[in-house]
Structure formats: structure tokens, C-alpha cells
Automatic annotation (TrEMBL):
<feature type="transmembrane region" description="Helical">
    <location>
        <begin position="56"/>
        <end position="76"/>
    </location>
</feature>
<feature type="transmembrane region" description="Helical">
    <location>
        <begin position="88"/>
        <end position="110"/>
    </location>
</feature>
<keyword id="KW-1003">Cell membrane</keyword>
<feature type="transmembrane region" description="Helical">
    <location>
        <begin position="430"/>
        <end position="452"/>
    </location>
</feature>
<feature type="transmembrane region" description="Helical">
    <location>
        <begin position="403"/>
        <end position="423"/>
    </location>
</feature>
<feature type="compositionally biased region" description="Polar residues">
    <location>
        <begin position="20"/>
        <end position="36"/>
    </location>
</feature>
<feature type="transmembrane region" description="Helical">
    <location>
        <begin position="207"/>
        <end position="228"/>
    </location>
</feature>
<feature type="transmembrane region" description="Helical">
    <location>
        <begin position="329"/>
        <end position="351"/>
    </location>
</feature>
<feature type="transmembrane region" description="Helical">
    <location>
        <begin position="464"/>
        <end position="482"/>
    </location>
</feature>
<keyword id="KW-0813">Transport</keyword>
<feature type="transmembrane region" description="Helical">
    <location>
        <begin position="175"/>
        <end position="195"/>
    </location>
</feature>
<feature type="compositionally biased region" description="Polar residues">
    <location>
        <begin position="1"/>
        <end position="10"/>
    </location>
</feature>
<keyword id="KW-1133">Transmembrane helix</keyword>
<dbReference type="InterPro" id="IPR002528">
    <property type="entry name" value="MATE_fam"/>
</dbReference>
<dbReference type="GO" id="GO:0042910">
    <property type="term" value="F:xenobiotic transmembrane transporter activity"/>
</dbReference>
<protein>
    <submittedName>
        <fullName>Putative efflux protein, MATE family</fullName>
    </submittedName>
</protein>
<feature type="region of interest" description="Disordered">
    <location>
        <begin position="1"/>
        <end position="43"/>
    </location>
</feature>
């Protein structure tokens, strides 16, 4: 960074934005203090210890957010299954793959916007940041409207094509129409919380995810059973609970951001930019589409893997489902670190502090080994006890236990690959990390699982070996490209 006199001149030129950003970030206590220090660090960088401390403070609410989402979904499923019946739960399950597909688009757009927001924030370019917000909100809302209209009209036809059983088809279609109607506001909620994370604030999105989850769970019995004079809606009450909860949460969030004078509040400058800037939209799609495609192809690969598992009987299928529940929590540190590293790297690139990228990568790798290692060690030690929460049959627990023993350690490798890929994505290099991920899944995991389970004496354990094989290959490819190609490229910011 330039000498103090030049820094002060720059600060005066951007004083309005700086004051708003600092005021908002200071309200997030230690997290904000770390981020503020990051943005003011002399000679263009924080010390390594400052980097990992700031990342850890950012990471904790992010992991808790992911955990809360999983817990909320689990509670909702239990309530519907116990209170409404198994057919109602089947109706929700029939729609879930399609819902995940649609949400993948929103997550992809949000992923792209967080990189652009992070770079603009690092560059202290308020005008560009507001333009990114305006374009992303406009595009997300229009996309949500289009999907809602198509979904409401063709819900039954789409679910029939997916092979939904006839006895739950009508129920699932009605449920789907309600959720399709929530797409525009759900997309807005997803991308706006991503914006906020993009400037290094993970506490505010976590707070509003708590608001949404508590509202959703609290409304379920009122709308399912028709308490206090409300209509008795059964299964559809669960869908309406989600719709009402997200609307209330978005309204409260926007009011909160305005009252707190948050730098990303929905003010006149954002409203002025509520249009689609062609250049920003092109960047957004360039960054977001690969993330969406990757998520979709990963979900499709799980369909292939479950078909291999099903051959070995219902005990194996149940074991696979139980371990997936456990793994969803084990991999949260890795997934959350990928997001954190991407945002910290984007801010460093935006501030032209390219020397900090190595520190960000190293901090992410160390935190993955420590936090991910703790999660994995705990599951290894208490694996049978944890699996017994989901399974009661001893033979099924034995199958699940073998899956845990074979695969769990490899989620540390999965995490390292996520972190390396995140640094590259923060610079706009998104195609190769996506291709490496797809290659490792479809040309390593799926073939290895198929061959070892079908053509060797390993049987069901051959399916499990496919996971560590894919994670190892993915890390080799990601890190190889990072060292041999990406590090030799000139890294420039996309915005600002």
C-alpha cells in the first residue's frame, strides 16, 4: 500500500463509504474488527496470524448457518412425517430433486455475486458494488418469476416425468406449486445474504437464517392443524409456512439493514441500479453457471451411486442414507471454508494485495485440517453411537460403520481441494476447477464404485472406495493446475 499520506487522501475521497462500512462492520464485534484491520493493513496485507483469526471468526457463523439449515430441514421432515403421514413425506421427497435443481441456479448466481462484491469491496468502490447488487437482484427476481410461472403451470407434468408415484402425484404437485410461487422471494433472500457475506459479514446472514428457521418451525403446527382459527392445510401448511417465513424474514432483514446503516442496505443508490448491466451480468453468469452445473452434476452422480448400492439390498440403502446424514455435517467445515477462502481471496484481489493470496490459502488449509480433523475424529470415536440415532438394525449399522471407516478420513482431502479451487475461483478462474470436479466424480468415483462393487470381491465396500479415490484425484488436479498454471498467470480484479 502507498505511504500514509496517500492512504489518507484515498480515505477522504471515499469517506462516505468508509464511514458506513466501518460503522456496520464494527457492530459485528471481533469479526468486523478483524476485517477492518484487513482492509487497513499497512503495505497491503495482514500477518498470517491475522488472516486465519479473521477467517476463523468469519467461519464460525457460516458453519452454524449450514448446520441450522440441515437441522431445520430435519425437524420439518419429522413433523410432516409424524403429523401428516408417510404419503405427505413421500410427496415432499418426490419434489426435492427438482427443488434442489432450481435452488442450484440461485446458489450459482449468489456464488458469482459474492466474488464480484468481495472484489469491489476490497477496491473500496461503492458505486460498482451497488451496481453488482442491482444487477444480481434484478436478474434473480426475473429468473424466479419465470421459474414460478413455468412451475405452477407444469408442476404435474414435470413430476410425472420424474416418475412420481400416482398415489402422491396430486399432493406433490400442489405442494410444488406453492414452493414454485416462493421462488422469486427465496432467490432474493439467498443472493442478499450472499452479498452480505461478500463484504466479510457472516453474522448478519446467520442471524436472519435463525429468524427464518424459527418462524418456519413455529408456523408448521399452526398451518398444518389450523390452530387459532387458521385454515387446516395439512401438508400444504408446510409449504405455506416456508413461503410466509421467507417473506417476513426478507422484510425484517431489509428494515434491519436500513436501521443499522449497513453498507449494503437497500437504499436509493441500490434502487437506482435495479437494472441489468450487461457487463456485470456477463461476469455474473460466467462465474455462476459453472457453480450451478457442478452442483447439478454432483447430485446426478449420487443417483448413479445409489443405484450401485441398491443392488446389495435395503440394509445397504438404509446404511447409505444414514451415513449421508452424518457426512452432511462432517463436510460442513470444508464447504464453509471454501466460501470463506473465496471471499477473503476476492477482497485481497480487489485491494490489489495479490501477495495475500498465499496467506489466505495457507490459513484455509490449516483451518481445514484442524476443524475438519476434529469433526472427523469425533465421528470415528462415536460412530456406532451416532449411527444408532438413525438405524436400529445391527447388520445395517455394521454396513454403515464400514462406510464411515473407509471414507471419512478422505473428507480432509475433499476440504483441501475445495480451498485450492476457491482461491482460483475468486480470481475468475472457474471453468477448470469445475471440470476437475466433474472429472473426478464422473470419470473416477462412479467408474471405481461400479467396477469394484461389480467385478471384485469387495462388494459393497467397493462403492465406498469410490469416494476417497475421487477426492484424491480432484486434489491432485486442482493443486497441479494451481501450481503449474494459475500461479504463473497475472491476476487482475474483475471489477473496481
Amino acid at each position: 500500500m502507498n505511504p500514509p499520506e496517500q492512504s489518507q487522501a484515498k480515505s477522504r475521497a471515499m469517506s462516505g463509504f468508509e464511514e458506513q462500512a466501518n460503522q456496520s462492520l464494527q457492530e459485528t464485534e471481533d469479526q468486523a474488527a478483524s476485517i477492518s484491520e484487513h482492509n487497513k493493513a499497512k503495505h497491503g496485507g495482514m500477518q498470517h496470524s491475522q488472516t486465519w483469526k479473521a477467517m476463523l471468526i468469519f467461519l464460525i457463523p457460516l458453519i452454524l448457518s449450514n448446520s441450522l439449515q440441515s437441522i431445520g430441514q430435519l425437524i420439518g421432515s419429522i413433523m410432516v412425517g409424524r403429523w401428516v403421514g408417510e404419503d405427505a413425506l413421500a410427496a415432499i421427497s418426490a419434489f426435492f430433486p427438482l427443488f434442489f435443481l432450481l435452488i442450484s441456479f440461485s446458489i450459482g448466481v449468489g456464488s458469482g455475486s459474492s466474488i464480484l462484491i468481495g472484489q469491489a469491496f476490497g477496491a473500496r468502490n461503492e458505486e460498482r458494488m451497488k451496481a453488482i447488487i442491482g444487477t444480481t437482484l434484478t436478474f434473480s427476481f426475473i429468473l424466479g418469476i419465470v421459474l414460478a410461472i413455468v412451475g405452477v403451470i407444469y408442476a404435474t407434468d414435470i413430476l410425472r416425468l420424474m416418475g412420481t408415484p400416482e398415489n402422491v402425484l396430486d399432493m406433490s404437485a400442489h405442494y410444488a406449486r406453492i414452493l414454485f410461487s416462493s421462488m422469486p422471494i427465496m432467490f432474493i433472500f439467498n443472493v442478499y445474504t450472499t452479498f452480505i457475506r461478500g463484504i466479510g459479514d457472516s453474522k448478519t446472514p446467520f442471524f436472519f437464517l435463525i429468524v427464518y428457521t424459527v418462524l418456519n418451525v413455529a408456523l408448521l403446527p399452526f398451518l398444518i392443524f389450523g390452530w387459532i382459527g387458521l385454515p387446516k392445510l395439512g401438508l400444504y401448511g408446510a409449504a405455506y409456512a416456508g413461503l410466509v417465513s421467507v417473506v417476513i424474514t426478507v422484510v425484517v432483514m431489509l428494515v434491519y439493514l436500513k436501521v443499522k446503516k449497513h453498507p449494503l442496505r437497500f437504499d436509493a443508490s441500490v434502487r437506482r441500479h435495479l437494472r441489468m448491466d450487461g457487463q456485470i451480468l456477463k461476469l455474473l453468469l460466467r462465474l455462476g453457471i459453472p457453480a450451478s452445473v457442478n452442483m447439478i452434476l454432483i447430485s446426478l452422480s449420487e443417483i448413479a451411486v445409489i443405484s450401485f448400492v441398491n443392488v446389495f439390498g435395503s440394509d445397504s440403502t438404509a446404511a447409505y442414507g444414514a451415513v449421508n446424514q452424518v457426512v452432511s455435517y462432517v463436510q460442513m467445515p470444508a464447504v464453509s471454508l471454501g466460501i470463506a477462502v473465496s471471499i477473503f481471496a476476492a477482497q485481497a484481489i480487489g485491494a490489489n494485495q495479490m501477495d495475500r493470496l498465499k496467506q489466505v490459502l495457507r490459513a484455509g488449509a490449516v483451518l481445514n485440517l484442524i476443524i475438519g480433523g476434529i469433526f472427523i475424529l469425533l465421528v470415528y470415536v462415536f460412530s456406532r453411537d451416532i449411527l444408532s440415532w438413525f438405524l436400529t438394525n445391527e447388520s445395517t449399522i455394521n454396513i454403515a460403520h464400514s462406510l464411515v471407516m473407509i471414507t471419512l478420513w478422505s473428507y480432509l482431502i475433499f476440504g483441501q481441494a475445495q480451498i485450492v479451487g476457491a482461491v482460483m475461483r475468486a480470481s475468475g478462474t472457474v471453468l477448470w476447477p469445475m471440470l476437475f470436479s466433474i472429472f473426478s466424480i464422473w470419470l473416477v468415483e462412479v467408474p471405481v464404485a461400479y467396477y469394484l462393487s461389480k467385478h471384485t470381491s469387495l462388494g459393497i465396500e467397493g462403492v465406498w472406495i469410490g469416494y476417497p479415490a475421487a477426492f484424491i484425484v480432484n486434489l491432485i488436479l486442482q493443486y497441479g493446475y494451481y501450481r503449474l498454471v494459475w500461479k504463473k498467470k497475472k491476476i487482475t480484479r474483475l471489477v473496481g
